[in-house]
Amino acid sequence: MGDYSKQISDSSFEADVANTSGLVLVDFWAEWCGPCRALGPVLEDVAKEMGGKVTIAKMNVDTNPETPTKFGVRSIPTLVLFKDGKQIETKVGSIPKQALIAWLTEKAA
Description:
Layout: E1 6-7, H1 13-18, E2 23-29, H2 34-49, E3 54-60, H3 66-70, E4 78-83, E5 86-92, H4 97-108
C-alpha cells in the first residue's frame, strides 16, 4: 500500500467512505489482477497530487467480498466515486492518469 492511498475493508467501509464528507474514490482490486497492479501507482500519484480534494481508498475484493457485491462490482479494477457518502459514478477498467485527474477535478467542483 502506498503512502497516500488508504486501505479499507468491509468492516471499515461505513467509517471510511459512507460517513465521510467530500470525494472518496474506492478502487476495487485484487493482487492477481494485472490491470489492477498497473493502476496502483497511478492512483498513488493521484492521491499525492489531489490529497486535499479526494481520498483514494483501496479495497481488496478477495479479502472483502461484501462491499464489492453491494455495489455490483463484477470485474476489476472498478473505481467507484463517492461524494459525501453517496455513490455518484463508476468506471470499470484501467484509466490513464490525466483522464483520472480530469474526472476527479470535474466531480470535485
